[in-house]
Design brief:
alpha/beta; elongated; 3 domains; 8-stranded parallel beta barrel; 6-stranded mixed beta sheet; Pyruvate Kinase, Chain: A, domain 1; TIM Barrel; 475 residues; 21 strands; 16 helices; M1 Pyruvate Kinase, Domain 3
């Protein structure tokens, strides 16, 4: 299986026994959602994952998903108001509001940021309002466009409004300290609107002065993010298409093409993508998925996503192990389809640029793999750069990455097609290549007579950029 599986850990899956079954079923990355749970609960899960990695000799990665700012309404009368079309409603930011006819909203700058005619969506868009007026202080008057029962504490989306909320909250800053201390490999940033949000998180992480910091996943869930998508991709280490909130922020019919656009841009930039939300939601309560869910998983693989994410299916669902097994079966079947391989994104670089030689070598390794039907492309890296570049070309050959960077092995578990191995014996280029081949033979990854491609730096002791390509048979 080349496409990776991200599974959210929750009450249904936090035990060590269940986590182990999920790893054996095909999970590559465990997601801890910091919108839920206390630190002591997260620590138990972290301990279990680290123990299982040692016991199973795996490199399962940990992804910490920051909550970010959440706009919600407060308590409403009788915990539910039946709203009718064209009814007028008053929203207030006054925390001391005692008027049952006014609905509290926890977003302080709401009256200043919104304008008449802009829309307010509540409860994933099930109820829709249009703003009539604002006093720019505490009161916003709105009209009901789509009626329904308004319950307490429901989430609010403002798809037309330039929101002035900061990307990181006080809770997020505390969570980041915990995440860095516990050595998570990936960190998901919610509420991303522009590349500056990614830069702010980078600067926050850098304050801890650690060498191996978590890599940043930009969650694309705001319509504003689409306007700055190229810069967001440039600043991020990976992207998540968070289809839940994004599907509320934009017209639903646009979502499939936006998903494809983001995946394609990330492939060209050699940045991993995760497709998330409602992939197999029916399996929260059912032992089999709907046919539409099977097609959704399949199409995400066909689009070229690096990883597919399970949320409620594994965190609170009744069948956390079975849903992983089912997703793996779908992925395996789609990966037998030859059209998903060899994307051939030619490096667009000037000949004297710093990475020109290594990018050309890595691109041509994938070209050669297709021409020769090579069993594997084998690379050595410390930063992971070679792994990302090779993976983004989507070769059908196996991708085996050797590194002396322990932290990188888990990070690469999110990257399409990559299987990592720890290696720290760098003698000479020829000797290292032969030694690595023998190791792969012992692991039964390759066998005598197979054609393999090695890419490396020479002289190898300098651990420099890739500048060598070798096609050879396994002896």
């Amino acid at each position: 299986m080349k496409t990776k599986i991200v599974a959210t850990v929750g009450p249904a899956s936090s035990s060590k026994e269940t986590l182990k079954k999920m790893i054996l079923a095909g999970v590559n990355v465990f997601r801890l959602n910091f919108s839920h749970g206390e630190y002591h609960e997260h620590l138990k899960i972290i301990k279990n994952i680290k123990e299982l990695n040692k016991e199973l000799n795996t490199h399962i990665a940990m992804l910490a998903d920051l909550q970010g700012p959440k706009i919600r309404i407060g308590q409403v009368k009788n915990n539910g108001i039946n709203l009718k079309k064209n009814q007028e409603i008053i929203f207030t930011t006054d925390e001391n509001n005692k008027d049952d006819n006014k609905i509290f909203i926890n977003y302080k700058h709401f009256p200043k940021d919104v304008k008449p005619k802009e829309k307010i969506l509540v409860n994933d868009g099930k109820i829709l309002f249009e703003i009539i007026s604002t006093d720019r202080k505490k009161i916003v008057k709105a009209k009901v466009l789509v009626e329904g029962i308004l319950s307490s504490r429901k989430g609010v989306n403002l798809p037309n409004t330039a929101i002035s909320l900061p990307c990181l909250t006080e809770k997020d800053f505390k969570d980041i300290e915990f995440i860095v201390k516990n050595k998570f490999q990936w960190i998901g940033l919610s509420f991303v609107r522009s590349a500056s949000d990614i830069i702010e998180l980078k600067q926050t992480i850098e304050k801890y002065k650690i060498e191996k910091h978590p890599l940043i996943i930009a969650k694309i869930e705001k319509s504003e993010a689409l306007k700055d998508i190229d810069n967001i991709i440039k600043e991020s280490d990976a992207l998540m298409v968070a289809r839940g909130d994004l599907g509320v922020e934009i017209p639903l019919e646009q979502l499939p093409l936006i998903q494809k656009m983001i995946v394609k841009k990330c492939l060209k930039a050699s940045k991993p993508t995760i497709i998330a939300t409602q992939m197999m939601e029916g399996m929260i309560t059912n032992i089999i998925p709907s046919r539409a869910e099977v097609n959704d998983v399949a199409n995400s693989v066909l689009d070229g996503a690096d990883a597919l994410m399970l949320s409620g299916e594994t965190s609170v669902g009744q069948f956390p192990v079975e849903v992983v097994k089912t997703m793996k079966k779908i992925i395996d079947n789609i990966e037998s389809y030859t059209d998903i391989y060899y994307k051939h994104y030619v490096p667009q670089q000037i000949i004297h640029e710093e990475r020109f030689i290594s990018d050309s070598i890595l691109y041509n390794a994938c070209e050669l793999a297709q021409q020769s039907n090579a069993k594997a492309i084998i690379a050595m890296t410390y930063s992971g750069y070679s792994a990302y570049k090779i993976s983004s070309q989507r070769p059908k050959s196996k991708i085996y990455i050797f590194t002396n960077n322990h932290s990188l092995l888990s990070k690469l578990n999110l990257v399409w097609g990559v299987e990592g191995f720890y290696y720290n014996k760098f003698i000479s280029t020829d000797n290292t290549i032969e030694d690595i081949k023998k190791k792969l033979q012992l692991e039964k990854k390759i066998e005598k007579g197979d054609l393999v491609i090695n890419v490396a730096s020479t002289p190898i002791k300098k651990l420099g950029r890739t500048n060598m390509l070798k096609l050879s048979y396994v002896d």
